[in-house]
Structure formats: structure tokens, C-alpha cells
Design a protein that fits this description.
Layout lengths: L23 H25 L2 H29 L10 H8 L4 H4 L4 H21 L8 H7 L10 H7 L9 H24 L4 H6 L6 H15 L7 H19 L7 H24 L30 H4 L1
Helix pairs in contact: 1-5, 1-8, 2-5, 2-6, 3-12, 7-8, 8-10, 8-11, 10-11
Length: 318
């Protein structure tokens, strides 16, 4: 994949960048996940809250959108230095996710907590609609600011699974593995919120809520298919297979998708520290060596060399 600027838009036919561009599979999963989660919130959570709490929720969602837009505008110089520099990729995603940790901890009142959930799920839906493959919380600000930074987030697991599907050189096994991985990973973002919807739809899907281990097994099978050698780079094949294996194991034990958020935060913090230390080493001035002044050499002259004077001694006198 060719390197690209983290703030640039994807031109027609250009190579996609993980963390910035979502493929068809990633877009479908995001749209379904966002729409189903919003349906669950609107049909289940909103009616349970009072009018005042719902107003607080809407105000909270608007405030979060403004805060993230301002944050991205201020961080833009650090987000457009390249995929492996500045805050692009892991560090930026972790930085934006850190404030959202107050939601799963459960310290927020009902109104603000509902506002955080509404903003998050609406952002997932918008990210799928516009094809933004970065951190879903930045989807709305990218529309306002007009640039798309590379920011890794939980849904990049689906994008990673899709990467080997659209190029024939990856082989049939890798393509089949990508399909299985998208189906398995998509389960964790679509079936649980749909099963939680009150009514006949939720009741009909509730029986699928216990198939998490099966979905995880699909992702593990996808990892085995992706590991089959092909003509492409072996390093990319191993990385994709290893990542899918870990994701599949997480699905089997019931850790998906909740475990992906702390994984992004911890990885981003580690990568950020490494980049800071590397930048500090690069900024150290090199030891200046003391210049050695050359000894001037007198140019030869055409004047005859004077005869050495004769000094008489006792031996020469004799």
C-alpha cells in the first residue's frame, strides 16, 4: 500500500489507507451497527427517560460534537505529518477515546450518558455513510473541517479483514477468509443491539444472542485461511492472520467488541511514548568536532639556496 498523507482525501482509484478509508464491507458494517444501535436507543432508552433528561442528552451530544471538532482543528498540524509521525494512527485515536472512558465506568447521570451513546452511534452511522474508515468519533468533525485524519479505532478490525478481498493476487483462500471475518466480526456490532430492541423484532433475534462463540470461531477460521501462503508479502499475511486470530479468540470468550476500546487506548499510549522518545533523540544536537586548522605550506621559490656558512673548528683548522 502506498504511503499517503493522513489529511488527504482518497482520489478515485487511489490506494486505500487503513484508518482513513472504509471499503464496502466496512461501510456496510458501520451503517448497520450505527442504525441498529440508534434504533435500540430511540425505541428503548429514550422512552425510559424524562423530557428533561432527553434534553440534557441532546445538549450533551451537541457539546461532544463541538468539542471534538475544536480538538481536531487544534490537532490538525499534528495529524497531517504522515501516517507514522505525530498523532496519526494509534496515538490520535487513543487521545480522542480517553475522555469517553467516563461512559463505560458508569459515573455519568442518565441524561449525559444517553447523550454520549447517541453521539457515538450516530457517528458510527455517519462514518459508514461517508466512507470514513478512521475513529468513528471523528466522523462528524471531518465533515465540518474538510479533512480526514488517519485515526485507528475499533471498527478497523473489519477494515483489516477486508483488505485481502479486493485483489486477486492475495488468493482465493485470503478472499474467503476476509468474507468469514467480516461476517463474524459484524455479528458483534449488529446482533446484540438488534436483540435488545423491544418488540417482535427483538424477540425474534434474541435467540441469536448466544452465538458469540460461533462468530468468534468464524473469525478464527478466517485467520487460518488468511495464513495460507500467496504471492504477496509474507509479513502482511502473518500480521493479518495473527490479528484475526486474536480477534477470534476475543469473540469466543465474549470480549468483543468492548475490549477493542481499551486495546486502542493502550496501544496508542505506547506508540505515542515511543514516538516522543524517538523525536527527542532526533532533536539532540550532534557533538561538534573541533576543526583542525591545516598547517600552511610555503610555496617553493626560484631563489637559489644560500651556501651554508663554513665554521672553522679545531679539527678543520688542521
Amino acid at each position: 500500500m502506498a504511503a499517503a498523507s493522513s489529511g488527504a482525501r482518497t482520489a478515485r482509484g487511489a490506494a486505500t489507507v487503513l484508518g482513513r478509508d472504509a471499503g464496502p464491507g466496512g461501510r456496510i458494517v458501520r451503517v448497520l451497527a450505527g442504525a441498529l444501535a440508534l434504533t435500540h436507543l430511540i425505541t428503548t432508552k429514550v422512552p425510559e427517560r424524562s423530557t428533561g433528561e432527553n434534553l440534557v442528552a441532546v445538549t450533551t451530544a451537541v457539546g461532544i460534537a463541538v468539542a471534538f471538532t475544536v480538538a481536531l482543528a487544534l490537532l490538525k498540524p499534528r495529524l497531517t505529518k504522515g501516517i507514522s509521525r505525530g498523532l496519526s494512527g494509534w496515538p490520535g485515536g487513543a487521545l480522542l477515546l480517553l475522555p469517553m472512558l467516563i461512559y463505560p465506568i458508569g459515573v455519568l447521570p442518565d441524561g449525559p450518558a444517553l447523550g454520549v451513546a447517541l453521539y457515538t452511534e450516530l457517528s458510527v452511522l455517519i462514518a459508514g455513510l461517508i466512507g470514513y474508515g478512521g475513529l468513528e468519533l471523528a466522523a462528524l468533525p471531518t465533515l465540518a473541517l474538510g479533512f480526514r485524519p488517519v485515526l485507528y479505532g475499533p471498527f478497523n478490525a473489519v477494515d483489516l479483514a477486508e483488505r485481502g478481498m479486493r485483489k486477486s493476487r492475495y488468493g482465493r483462500a485470503s478472499q474467503a477468509g476476509g468474507v468469514l471475518a467480516i461476517i463474524g466480526l459484524g455479528y458483534f456490532w449488529t446482533v446484540p443491539p438488534l436483540a435488545a430492541v423491544h418488540g417482535s423484532v427483538g424477540d425474534a433475534v434474541s435467540g441469536l444472542g448466544g452465538l458469540g462463540p460461533v462468530a468468534g470461531a468464524l473469525v478464527i477460521a478466517a485467520a487460518a485461511l488468511v495464513a495460507v501462503p500467496f504471492k504477496g508479502p509474507a509479513r502482511i499475511r502473518r500480521l493479518r492472520a495473527g490479528a484475526l486470530l486474536l480477534l477470534g479468540l476475543g469473540g469466543v470468550v465474549g470480549a468483543l467488541p468492548d475490549a477493542l476500546w481499551p486495546v486502542v487506548i493502550l496501544t496508542g499510549l505506547v506508540v505515542g511514548v515511543l514516538r516522543l522518545s524517538r523525536g527527542a533523540r532526533d532533536r539532540k544536537p550532534a557533538l561538534r568536532s573541533i576543526p583542525v586548522q591545516p598547517v600552511p605550506v610555503q610555496p617553493p621559490t626560484d631563489r637559489p639556496v644560500a651556501d651554508r656558512p663554513t665554521v672553522e673548528t679545531s679539527s678543520t683548522a688542521r
